[in-house]
Amino acid sequence: MTELTHVQALTAARELLSNKAKWTTRLYAKGKHKESVDPISEEATCFCSLGALMRVNGHSKDIYDRLDGGLAGEDALHEAATRMIRKYARNEGVNGTVGFNDQYGHAKVLEMFDLAIELAKEG
């Protein structure tokens, strides 16, 4: 698989999640019966923000756990999540990309990706 740039990875993940039926919370990815599956599995039907980024980067959850922040676009996505949490801080204790994904809803997740793409373009 060709390595994606940060902007390419974020854009592809946002596109994947643009259909609300492809977005989820609480797990990186779910199968058709809402069970936990690996984001790169053919059984995966919906994804959280990080799960979508794993999917487009072609990294399984096990590889992601060992990368320690090595996904293309991940740093920009985390920075965008931090800024979005500050902007919409209605829930104390919301933390990072996963917390934002799970607490703020699909529309705000897409907004977070838009911001992350802009941050990645800025370098």
Provide a quick synopsis of the model.
With about 120 residues, the chain is mostly helical. The protein has helices at about 5-15, 50-55, 60-65, 75-85, 95-105, 105-120; strands at about 30, 45.
Characterize the structure shown:
- The chain is mostly helical and 123 residues long.
- It has one domain.
- Helix content is 55%, strand content 3%.
- The protein is built from six helices and two strands.
- Strands 1-2 form a two-stranded antiparallel sheet.
- Helix 1 crosses helix 2, helix 1 packs antiparallel against helix 6 and helix 4 packs across helix 6.
- The longest helix is centred in the last third of the chain and has 17 residues.
- The radius of gyration is 13 Å and the shape is globular.
Radius of gyration: 13 Å
Major sheet details = 2 strands, antiparallel
Helix content: 55-70%
Shape category: globular
Q: Beta fraction of the residues? A: under 5%
The total of beta strands comes to 2
Number of continuous helical runs: 6
Low-confidence stretches: none
Number of domains: 1
Would you list the SSEs in sequence order as H and E? HEEHHHHH
What is the structural class? mainly alpha
* CA-CA gap between termini: 23 Å
Mean pLDDT over the residues: 89
Which properties best describe this structure?
123 residues; two-stranded antiparallel sheet; globular
How would the blueprint of this fold be written?
Layout: H1 6-17, E1 29-30, E2 46-47, H2 49-57, H3 61-67, H4 74-87, H5 96-104, H6 106-122
Antiparallel strand pairs: 1-2
Helix pairs in contact: 1-2, 1-6, 4-6
